[in-house]
Amino acid sequence: MTPDHLVALLCPPLHNPRRRRGGNMAPEKSATVPQFLRGAELVKQGAEARVYRTQFLGRPTIVKERFSKRYRHVALDEKLTRRRTVQEVRSILRCRRAGIPAPAVYFVDYTSHCIFLEEILRSSTVRDHIASTQQSASCTVQELDRDQDRELVQEQELEQLAQQVGQILAKMHDEDVIHGDLTTSNMLLRRSPEDRGSDLVLIDFGLSYISALPEDKGVDLYVLEKAFLSTHPHTEALFQKLLKSYSASSKKSSAVLKKLDEVRLRGRKRSMVG
Amino acid sequence: MTVVIGFEGSANKIGIGIIRDGEVLSNPRRTYITPPGQGFMPSDTARHHRAVILTVLKEALEQAGLKPADVDCVAYTKGPGMGAPLVTVALVARTVAQLWGKPLLGVNHCIGHIEMGRLITKANNPTVLYVSGGNTQVIAYSERRYRIFGETIDIAVGNCLDRFARVIKISNDPSPGYNIEQMAKKGSQYMELPYTVKGMDVSFSGILSYIEEAANKMLSSGQCTAEDLCFSLQETVFAMLVEITERAMAHCGSQEVLIVGGVGCNVRLQEMMGVMCDERGAKLFATDERFCIDNGAMIAQAGWEMFRSGQVTELEDSWITQRYRTDEVEVTWRD
Ligand SMILES: Nc1ncnc2c1ncn2[C@@H]1O[C@H](COP(=O)(O)OP(=O)(O)OP(=O)(O)O)[C@@H](O)[C@H]1O
Ligand SMILES: [Mg+2]
């Protein structure tokens, strides 16, 4: 990031084009990129944000920009965008204070709805990790079980990962943080520098909120269960491992798992007409 | 050439359609309409279906210009839906199959919607938003199943709209959803309503109880008009649906969306989804009320795919079920 960018960043009201322009100018298109992001590399357009890679004060940084969504009513759009930026920062801080790995927040610009986050280096999403492990396992089967040992190792590795996920979620729920969008895309697996083991980092807290209610925690797990099983076919047993480790690690798990059962049953009992 | 006739009657519509290798030969339908403020009850709906089903069957054959001998397979809705209407229609399907000496096929209603949407729009491998009176699901295909990525954790979006219509006594003719859509066009004031999205899932019960509680007060105090309420409700629930669809697309890396189910013929929902797709460089596929709303051809089309892949339902297995999840069906006709 150049000094110019930094100035733009630290004085957003002056340099934000939306503010600088006169009232009679045409409204901006939502595709307009804030000035300080020109030159940053666009990594991904997620469902509600554009994710860029850049440098901030010399550190590798991810900028998450919540741009306005033209499909929804302006009043609703503004409310959601503001609320989610605030919630994301708040929950990340709360998690980090409790020792739950989440990227550090470097800077927040509430005018352009940008959050500057520590880039988690040497990481991939849990989703990609499971998918590639499963794929290489099924190749082995096709190679007529030539490599049964490797398959076993991979299975154990995935089980260990499921356990890790269960533990971290238990810890998060014990802090009364409801993530709100638990999927395997929103968990990063970070390899340690010497490739000895890896740790888990939670991201994407835009839909999160604080609640102590077992119902909210149960729904959080229900959302994960559905996303997990639909994204990764044939992983029912693996997900059970995850839940088992959750219940072993959380002080309040029995009420939560009871709610999870209730929510599942509601889904199955719902009459479906039309 | 393979000709399949499909019988559908899982809710308040009764339809019979005939498909010949991707061509819709006929698709007549009747709707059981209740007075404003009232929903449809299973036994009354079944009575309605019983009264008209043979007339509709005759129409289907006549419009297609076919005789029973030309039909290769008789498909019917196995579920999900309301028990009594499902039984009524399955009974007629079973009877004609035996009279005509043709094989039977029990079809999942949701799969019918998806396959009809794919046939009409030629969408290849879309993320599917299935929205109707009884269902709200975001679906994508992988490894021989239509997998449910997101869905409502309580009531369906169509159910939320229908019940709101009852609260402020909007007509059920032709459907509450259609009338809400027309009224919403005249609304302008956006009233803030609860907005509940949980990952790829949504919840509508909070919105419904809020609006059930507040609607008549807001109307009598002149705070807003019925049109404003229709507008605000649509803007809110449709934004939720577009949001979870987009989240599923980002999650699956998909660039196509197909909207199916009765609520899917709402032009405002299609428009909002279109804007979202534009912004992502994705493509939107949708159909109109002939194929979005429950109909016989959709059961015939799913039946056609199943039949061609070698499936039939034996007489003793030709039961119905009120609960039948989309992801229970093994998709034998796609790679
Ligand atoms: N701090 C980070 N370090 C490294 N990569 C990151 C970081 N934050 C996000 N990413 C990458 O960007 C992707 C999208 O980020 P995030 O989930 O926060 O955005 P989003 O718009 O909410 O995405 P979606 O709606 O698709 O879930 C992540 O899956 C991950 O690959
Ligand atoms: Mg994400």
From TrEMBL, chain A:
It comes from Scophthalmus maximus. Component of the EKC/KEOPS complex composed of at least GON7, TP53RK, TPRKB, OSGEP and LAGE3; the whole complex dimerizes. It is found in: Nucleus. Gene3D superfamilies: Phosphorylase Kinase, domain 1 (3.30.200.20), Transferase(Phosphotransferase) domain 1 (1.10.510.10). This is non-specific serine/threonine protein kinase. GO terms for cellular component: cytosol; EKC/KEOPS complex; nucleus. Keywords: ATP-binding, Hydrolase, Kinase, Nucleotide-binding, Nucleus, Phosphoprotein, Serine/threonine-protein kinase, Transferase, tRNA processing. One of its GO terms (molecular function) is protein serine/threonine kinase activity.
TrEMBL record, chain B:
GO terms for molecular function: metal ion binding; tRNA N(6)-L-threonylcarbamoyladenine synthase activity. Its EC number is 2.3.1.234. A divalent metal cation binds at H109, H113, Y130, D294. GO terms for cellular component: cytoplasm; EKC/KEOPS complex; nucleus. It comes from the Eukaryota. Its main location: cytoplasm. Keywords: Acyltransferase, Cytoplasm, Metal-binding, Nucleus, Transferase, tRNA processing. Substrate binds at Y130, V131, S132, G133, G134, D162, G177, E181, N266. The keyword Repeat does not apply. Gene3D superfamilies: 3.30.420.40. GO terms for biological process: tRNA threonylcarbamoyladenosine modification. Binds 1 divalent metal cation per subunit. It is an enzyme of class 2 (transferase). InterPro entries: ATPase_NBD, Gcp-like_dom, KAE1/TsaD, Kae1_archaea_euk, Peptidase_M22_CS. Belongs to the KAE1 / TsaD family. Its cofactor is a divalent metal cation. It is found in: Cytoplasm; Nucleus. This is N(6)-L-threonylcarbamoyladenine synthase. Residues 29-300 form the Gcp-like domain. It catalyses: L-threonylcarbamoyladenylate + adenosine(37) in tRNA = N(6)-L-threonylcarbamoyladenosine(37) in tRNA + AMP + H(+). It comes from Scophthalmus maximus (Turbot).
